[in-house]
Write the structure tokens for this entry.
Amino acid sequence: MNFNECYQTAEKYFLAQDMSAVGRNFSALIHLTGEDSGYIYMLCMNGKKLIEPIGHPYADIRLTLSTKTFEDLLTGKLEPIRAFTTGQVQAHGNVMLALAIYHSLKQTN
């Protein structure tokens, strides 16, 4: 997947899913690295969702991973705990929130 495909997939999953299972308002920033890099910013506030292909100075959770790792996570080829423990995903902030978001998004896939 290139960055644009990663963004479109994340947008589709994020907007289709009821994120109330996460249990709180949140913001997340995903930094995709590699030849075709970029940022995906997600915000969920009072049931309203926003996703944009931009960096943002504040997020409850910041994730850095390659576009390949992102694709493997979305397709189920890679589990998030394994990705984190093997260094394929770097997380800063509320890691439990990242897992809750991941599991909510996977319900759509």
Q: What stands out?
A: The mean pLDDT is 88. The two ends are 16 Å apart (CA to CA).
